[in-house]
Amino acid sequence: xxxxxxxxxxxxxxxxxxxxxxxxxxxxxxxxxxxxxxxxxxxxxxxxxxxxxxxxxxxxxxxxxxxxxxxxxxxxxxxxxxxxxxxxxxxxxxxxxxxxxxxxxxxxxxxxxxxxxxxxxxxxxxxxxxxxxxxxxxxxxxxxxxxxxxxxxxxxxxxxxxxxxxxxxxxxxxxxxxxxxxxxxxxxxxxxxxxxxxxxxxxxxxxxxxxxxxxxxxxxxxxxxxxxxxxxxxxxxxxxxxxxxxxxxxxxxxxxxxxxxxxxxxxxxxxxxxxxxxxxxxxxxxxxxxxxxxxxxxxxxxxxxxxxxxxxxxxxxxxxxxxxxxxxxxxxxxxxxxxxxxxxxxxxxxxxxxxxxxxxxxxxxxxxxxxxxxxxxxxxxxxxxxxxxxxxxxxxxxxxxxxxxxxxxxxxxxxxxxxxxxxxxxxxxxxxxxxxxxxxxxxxxxxxxxxxxxxxxxxxxxxxxxxxxxxxxxxxxxxxxxxxxxxxxxxxxxxxxxxxxxxxxxxxxxxxxxxxxxxxxxxxxxxxxxxxxxxxxxxxxxxxxxxxxxxxxxxxxxxxxxxxxxxxxxxxxxxxxxxxxxxxxxxxxxxxxxxxxxxxxxxxxxxxxxxxxxxxxxxxxxxxxxxxxxxxxxxxxxxxxxxxxxxxxxxxxxxxxxxxxxxxxxxxxxxxxxxxxxxxxxxxxxxxxxxxxxxxxxxxxxxxxxxxxxxxxxxxxxxxxxxxxxxxxxxxxxxxxxxxxxxxxxxxxxxxxxxxxxxxxx
Length: 762
Ligand code: F6P
What we know:
Bound molecules: 6-O-phosphono-beta-D-fructofuranose
Strand order of the largest sheet: 10-11-9-6-12-13-14-17-16-15
Low-confidence stretches: 1-17, 219-227
Helix content: 40-55%
Radius of gyration: 50 Å
Strand content: 15-25%
Oligomer: single chain
Structural class: alpha/beta
Mean pLDDT: 89
CATH architecture of the largest domain: 3-Layer(aba) Sandwich
Shape: elongated
Number of helices: 24
């Protein structure tokens, strides 16, 4: 469920006043009901009370009347026809309150009564009623009060006087009182309700605005006049955290708005690039055929470039031109040096180009990997520039450029040039295919102008690259360095606003395109073993005790990857937090790379020795702390390791992007595991939820490792889920899609410009 921040919540159609009114009603109606009910319950009680008060009054009045009449009654009694007594009684009942009266003899016989005296009321009955707490009797004219009073004469009691006094006035008064009371209670209720609503509304508004302000962070950072009450701060924190949680959950569950997929990339090719041919050029080939005894096996090289570009190529079809470096590569190609790939699926062609040992030595090992690699990485290894290497570099670039031209089926193919091995190729292809769209992607960092300036052929390199339509780097920072380098060493016009370089009549667009991986499809993930199984497999394979924590590193043996610094960090962590001795293992996969070069061989040797030294220092029955696996591991083996690990360490001293960290995140569909990532890898800009470290600062990395090992599962999940959202969204199809969309726009603009020019000439 998506939850908007409160500050941006839409007002309901009825508006806030309507909402408030409804709120008030919700409060008022029950209040009125309660008060009315209370009134109706109270009224009978009141009636009874008043009745008792009046009964007491009437009894007293009756006593007075009886004593006032006693003498007259005693005088009138001897009259045998009773006329005097009747006349006395008739006079007495002229009092409007006295309805009727009768005289009872001492032996309870009714001697005389007035006309309205009830026929069915005898002396005993009257006495019984009079003894009740509410001495009431309903007769024809209404309710009457019944009282029985002794009639005293000088000689003693001569009888009892029964007085029936009018009570209807009490009913009338009670009715009036009831009305007044209802009016009083209703008004009281209305006043209470009004006061309550005003108070509630004021505090509700204050609460809402206070909470909104707090959610915006105002109340917490600037204590202004009218700022929300401080007591709301913890509540706002909690509320904000919950809203963010819900938003995050929603984003994770829903995925990106318009996800980049292989299909989307294909359709983009057909719409924006009219289905034009795509040709990829790289040094490293996506699949290597190797002879093992009498068998030919297919290997995937340990290469970020291949990891990223291969799925794109499968989506785009076309032709990939690369150096055929495998021992059995020649055995599987056709007469045009082509092989259909991936094996068994034939989604694109790989055109293999063969290099002589001299070419490979000068172009690949020499100029590319001893010159440009350390030049661009600034990893404190001196670049070596040899004239002979430069010559080979030019020759091989020309050979690959010729292969591109030979493979092109039209005058305007889309050529994707990969990496620092082919800095000269764009201009070479442009010369033969001026209408080609050439996208060059530089997979490694670009240094600042001063650092680049030490290259003796800096001008040639820049001119070669500017044959491209678009030059892409991983980060804006590398783009900026490149623009500044061109500005420093070439006579070119740079439009910083549009990030374009005009050089010798043609324009090149420079942009950042952060590379990524193809997010695993459900078909792939369904083939993965459960995390627990992967863990059991790895622990059994390397004899790691079950209670140990596991960190992994997956790299080529390359001095830029910070493997040595990683080992020092492990050593420091064990010194600083000795509780991990015997409870922690680092499995370090290091694929041999560029072994012809002394620098690389020495590096591998140093890593091996350092691992052994650390293992000897922290020797423990639980096994060695560092398991160095100096061999190439295929995709499945690496993913099994990622899924088994508690921590993944990526500590590059400098890296264009680094895709190991993205692969680790993609492998953790259980949302567990912690990524430790170097701030000097391009990926650090996209993945702040990792524990970011400076690998040169061994202490910091050691602390991060300890922190990763003790990180609560909830925090791991929080970080990992967010990383997974980023990598899934910013996948390699998006990388290629953005570049190809830009290329499509560029081509359209050029076509329009050409048409305009033609019209002008006609
Ligand atoms: O990721 C950087 C990168 O230079 C890739 O471009 C290259 O494929 C990879 O390192 C491995 O290098 P190599 O192809 O020389 O083994």
